[in-house]
Structures are given as C-alpha cells and as structure tokens.
Amino acid sequence: MRKILFRAGTVAVLVAICILMMIIGRGHSMYFDNKSLEYNGTKYDAIRRINVTVGGEQVAKLSKKERGVATFMGQKFTFDVEIIREKNGPSEYRTFNVEVPYNMDGIVVNLIGMIEDLPQEAWMTEFIPAPVVEEEGSDEVVIDEFDISSEG
Length: 152
What we know:
The protein is α+β, with helices and mostly antiparallel strands and 152 residues long.
C-alpha cells in the first residue's frame, strides 16, 4: 500500500510541475506591425515611427509598413511604445498588457489597432509562416542504378 501511495504522489507532483510549466514557462514570439489597418469599414493609417520597448530595452524601431519581434516567456506580456506621428513632432507614450491565448505561439500584433483602442480581434492574429515554394526548374532527376523491378 505504501508503495502505491509513493507512486501516486510522484505522478501527482509531476503533473503539477507540467501544468505550472505550461502556464509560466511557455515561450512565445510577438511580432509588432506598423501597417495600415481596416476594421468595420474604417481605415487606420500607419504611424510615422513607433519605438517598442520591453523591460527598458528597445526591441523594435518601426517606420511605416515595418515589422519587429520580441520573444518572451509566460502568458502575459507588457511593453511600452513611443509614438511619433510626424517628423520632429511630439512623442506619445503608451503601455500595453497583452494576455496571450494558450493556443498561439507566434502572435502578430498590429500596433495601430492597439493604439486606436480597437477590440482584440482587430489587432491580434496568429503568425503562420509562409510555405516554402520550390522552383519548377530545380527538379532533380533521380536515376535508380539498382532497379529491381526489371529482370536481367
């Protein structure tokens, strides 16, 4: 009986560690876009320059139509943005806290949607890498020297 209790306790501790690691130890990549956005028929234009800072370190300096990236652990992510709407214009500063859905590893955040206080479905999408397309002219011809299908 004692042996069974020790085994059950060991399994329970391992399951608890797995759950804890899933919540706090999961790594993510967050991609920041400074691209125009259209939502509910309204177009929101990209901003001249957005500087993204995480933990006091600048991770992206984005002009219009550019993308930056930051990696982090956990399900919550906090970052600061400096918004410069026109050349030599004043800077605006905002802080954002993002709760990352459990089913997403790579997240694309359109900063324009966040700055304009649009709902999450307008500015957050999952990053899906584009499939690699092979060129048609690069097909290699493979000759089987040991063809066993024919006799002789």
